[in-house]
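During the second year of the project, the team shifted from modelling isolated chains to modelling whole assemblies. The rationale, set out in the original proposal, was that interfaces cannot be judged from single-chain predictions alone. As a representative example for this report, we include one of the complexes processed in the last quarter. Its constituent sequences, exactly as entered into the pipeline, are reproduced here:
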Amino acid sequence: MTDDRGLYLYAVVPADTHIDGVPPGVGDRQSDLIRHEDLGLVAHEVDLADLARLNEPSADPGQLAELAQRHDRVVRAAMEAATAVLPFRLGTVLADRQSARQFLVERWEDLRRGLGRLTNCEEWGVTVRAEGSSEPQQTRSGSTPDRPGTAYLTRRRQQLDDAESRRRTRSARAAEIDEALHELSVDSAHGPKRGVTVLLDETYLVRRPETSAFLDAVDRCGARLSGEGIELRLTGPWPPYSFARLEGCPD
Amino acid sequence: MVDLLDRIVDRGVVVTGDVVIALAGIDLIRLDLRLMLIGVEKALAEQREVR
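Output from the structure prediction step:
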């Protein structure tokens, strides 16, 4: 074992997965499979110096983006080649192959369980947001302004009621969409909901055989929203990053 | 790219303990923040381009 090298981990897959077709990853290295029983770790050596450079404040941001792209490419290819994939977090580096095998042996049951949960599954991201401004529209008052103060207050209350009613409708729409998609998925996870107009930010874990039913539902939901000032956005399929979990004692 | 960074940062199995190289050349927390910053920068840059 050399001090300036480590082992970069991508994912756990079944041991019989053929990963020859997986593209080069971080540092242009080719991954192979470290096996134990029925599990395999998709991994390759990495020069720590390459990774250390990313940590410097002066580092080119493009390099980090490149790392993310390469990582996802390998995980994705592993997903295509395997029946199940359990992704590791970006930047997981072990000391060497021996440590990797040791890890695999010690955590075999947990890894197996974590992988089993994701058999034949991909994830899809769905965001629903209110389009445009949420400011109440101007309502016209037909009455003469004998009492302008009251007229103003009445109008203002109308605007606020309308806005509240719109808000409730949008919330209900988002909940309907979530329910419809939840029914067609194995699991779901909440997203960070960045931005005030976001009504729904969810990731759904979908079994591959159910993909077309899921996507049909997304299309239907999207179509229903047109003209209501709400838009739905879908991203995917992704490897099941959001559902990659390892239970049991961390150490 | 923004989608990818949102999706990949801070997700996936976390390995802890002796087997993990302590610094591993990557400070994961700082990496996460930087990836998110890149995401935001790029999104803003893309918006500017569209205009």
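The beta strands of chain A are 5-14, 32-36, 39-47, 86-87, 93-94, 121-130, 187-190, 198-207, 230-238. Residues 80 and 192 of chain A are 28 Å apart (CA to CA).
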